[in-house]
């Protein structure tokens, strides 16, 4: 297996060669914005839809309170959205009463009541684009519910006006209750995608109108999308990936991952049938801290396809404790359970098995446009989020598993000399008799790239 690295990573700032480290990147550090994509959908009964809107209100109220402490040039981000917060774990009874008042104010609105009925009766799967549409339409009522209770509670002067922008999309509200009745599922999805794009266009215009206040942008325009981007973390723990390829002969790959041929390619020894690599990782915990040991990590092949896996959000809230799942998501005020809770509570072992079987798939799919990479990946994850800190995602490999190093066509000679010196020293340290170095070249007879041997250490 081959892994491309820049000189900066290998022997510069990060010293990966000296430390024998492989860095596992967060998905947002990779160059494909579609990394880790799951096609989430929401489909459930009245109980769980109401609970989702309560959760949205709870998170929005938190963001509004934070925003009042910020200058206009500051902003709310995803990390400020408390997706694990629940009314049961609020610090004071006064705070709980305030949230309950906001709930009552919001759900007393006749439009909200009609909207919940519409969503509940809709037989179609509701995908992320459509959820965004619904939250944007309801967000004006949600904000006004918070402001009204704030005024009644004395948090806001009764004459003070918040910077609430008119939700222009309210003029399309009347189309929703019956729209799905005249369309099949495919038509309905296309319609909602179109409506989603229209609202995104309106968002862009509104952002220009309040361009001098990032804080207002984040609360009144961007919050629904930030919320949706955040709550998917309630389904699965984060994953981090290290990328490899099954060859190093593609010139365009050298041009990108090989830093325009100035970088280096590391060749690792792996079993051809079941490619594995031993890495030192966290295997346990003690009173003295983390316990590290070498263990096998599987290199899994990327599937290049245009279809991403679907995931039922309401039935895959695997990051939450069972009690919180029941109290916050799966039951109503009369302790009646949502139909979405059936497998979780009645067939938990089966549900857990299915839940974890779906985990890796999202990180092993890319669009066909990337197929020239012929990529394999090692996936790193922990239910305890023990890899949040980037330094914990630097896993050490065994020197014996580094088979060879291949220089690019333009790898600087100073870098080559330094790399060879490091390897020669490591060969002595680990008692290794031979290590091979290659460089990329072009074959005029075959009209293709190949790597030729430069030298072997003995």
- How many helices in DSSP terms? 15
Distance between the termini: 23 Å
* Shape by Cα distribution: elongated
Taking pLDDT < 50 over at least 5 consecutive residues as the criterion, the unreliable ranges are: 163-174
Structural class: alpha+beta
- Percent range for helical residues? 25-40%
Walk across the major sheet and give the strand order.
1-7-16-17-18
Q: What is the average per-residue confidence, as pLDDT, rounded to a whole number?
A: 90
Our Rg estimate from Cα atoms comes to 27 Å
Number of strands: 18
DSSP strand content: 15-25%
Q: Please give the largest β-sheet.
A: 5 strands, mixed
Number of domains: 2
In words, what does this structure look like?
This protein has 458 residues and is of the alpha+beta class. The protein folds into two domains: 2-34 and 236-307 and 360-457, no CATH class; 39-234, no CATH class. The chain has helices at residues 7-11, 16-19, 46-67, 93-107, 110-121, 128-153, 176-179, 185-209, 214-220, 223-231, 251-256, 322-330, 342-346, 348-357, 413-430; strands at 2-5, 21-23, 25-26, 39-42, 126-127, 239-245, 264-268, 276-286, 289-298, 300-301, 303-304, 310-312, 365-366, 375-381, 394-397, 402-407, 435-443, 448-457. A five-stranded mixed β-sheet has the order 1-7-16-17-18. The protein has a four-stranded antiparallel β-sheet with strand order 2-15-8-9. A four-stranded antiparallel β-sheet has the order 3-6-14-10, with no helix packed on it. A hairpin with a 4-residue loop joins strand 17 (435-443) and strand 18. The radius of gyration is 27 Å and the shape is elongated.
């Amino acid at each position: 297996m081959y892994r491309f690295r820049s000189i900066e990573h290998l022997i510069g700032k990060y010293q990966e060669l000296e430390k024998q480290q492989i860095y596992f990147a967060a998905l947002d550090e990779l160059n494909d914005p579609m990394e880790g994509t799951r096609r989430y959908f929401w489909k459930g009964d009245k109980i769980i839809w109401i609970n989702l809107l309560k959760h949205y209100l709870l998170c929005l109220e938190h963001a509004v309170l934070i925003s009042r402490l910020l200058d206009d040039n500051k902003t709310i981000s995803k990390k400020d959205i408390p997706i694990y917060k629940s009314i049961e774990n609020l610090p004071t009874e006064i705070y709980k009463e305030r949230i309950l008042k906001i709930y009552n104010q919001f759900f007393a609105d006749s439009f909200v009541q009609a909207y919940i009925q519409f969503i509940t009766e809709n037989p179609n799967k509701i995908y992320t684009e459509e959820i965004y549409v619904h939250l944007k339409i309801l967000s004006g009522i949600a904000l006004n519910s918070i402001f009204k209770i704030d005024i009644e509670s004395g948090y806001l002067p009764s004459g003070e006006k918040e910077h609430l922008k008119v939700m222009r999309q309210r003029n399309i509200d009347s189309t929703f209750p019956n729209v799905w009745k005249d369309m099949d599922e495919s038509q309905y999805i296309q319609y909602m995608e179109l409506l989603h794009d229209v609202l995104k266009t309106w968002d862009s215009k509104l952002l220009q109108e309040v361009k001098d206040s990032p804080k207002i942008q984040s609360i009144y325009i961007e919050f629904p999308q930030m919320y949706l981007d955040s709550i998917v973390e309630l389904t699965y723990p984060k994953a981090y990936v290290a990328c490899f390829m099954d060859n190093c002969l593609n010139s365009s790959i050298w041009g990108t991952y090989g830093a325009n041929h100035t970088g280096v390619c590391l060749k690792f020894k792996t079993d051809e049938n079941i490619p594995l690599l031993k890495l030192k990782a966290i295997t346990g915990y003690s009173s003295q801290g983390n316990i590290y040991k070498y263990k096998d990590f599987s290199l899994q092949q990327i599937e290049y396809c245009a279809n991403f896996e679907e995931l039922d959000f309401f039935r895959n809230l695997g990051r939450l404790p069972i009690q919180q799942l029941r109290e916050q998501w799966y039951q109503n005020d009369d302790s009646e359970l949502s139909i979405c809770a059936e497998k979780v509570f009645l067939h938990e072992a089966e549900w857990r098995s299915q839940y974890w079987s779906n985990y890796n798939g999202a990180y092993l799919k890319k669009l066909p446009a990337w197929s020239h990479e012929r990529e394999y990946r090692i996936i790193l994850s922990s239910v305890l989020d023990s890899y949040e800190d980037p330094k914990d995602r630097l896993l050490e490999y065994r020197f014996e598993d580094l088979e060879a190093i291949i220089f690019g066509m333009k790898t600087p000679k100073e870098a080559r000399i330094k790399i060879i010196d490091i390897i020669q020293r490591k060969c002595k340290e680990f008692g290794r008799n031979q290590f091979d170095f290659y460089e990329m070249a072009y074959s005029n007879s075959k009209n293709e790239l190949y790597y030729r041997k430069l030298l072997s250490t003995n």
